[in-house]
Fold:
Amino acid sequence: MKLSRRDLVWIVPSGLAAAFFGWFGWRAVKIQFLKTAVPKEIRWKKGERVKIAEVSEFDEPWSFAYREYPIHGGKLPIVVLRLPQAVPGGLETDGKYFAAWSRICTHQGCKLDYVRNVEAGAILYNYRSDHPFLGCKCHFGAFDPLESGKAVFGPPRFPLPRILLQEEGGVLYAAGYETPLRPIESYRPLKTFGS
Ligand code: FES
Structure:
């Protein structure tokens, strides 16, 4: 069949539109559903041992603390949570469960916030959860502490790198981090990340 110029006038834009919507649909599926699982085998990179807090300062499940961990000559913002249950990569001490993560979003490196109020989280992030989560204001990504930091909503695909916790004499310490430390590598040589 021979195509006339008049045919091309609608075939070309239609083809481009179909390609665009196909790409857009695939991207939407990838963003919402194809999240990378949290690694079962954790590759820790041990580092300086830094005091986080007294265990007793975390008086109830879902209490938290923001801290910094020395890395690459700079400071990595981290969040430490007391959880209601054990999670892989976390720490159990005296019947209490803890876990900690980098606060740098694995999407494009913004600093995460701990969203304790789930009703406010549902409004602010358009993500409904029955428990607190870690949220990113840049593109409204969410990470689930009870899934060990898995990306569960929005653009981020990769889970948050975990922080190695230790306990001694009633004190919590951070002593390393999970590798790969996404997305920090591409942010070197900044001294402070996620600011
Ligand atoms: S940088 Fe966090 S969702 Fe995009």
Remarks:
- Residues 5-33 form the longest helix (29 residues).
- Confidence is low (pLDDT under 50) at residues 187-192.
- The longest strand covers residues 43-54.
- The helical segments are 5-33, 118-125.
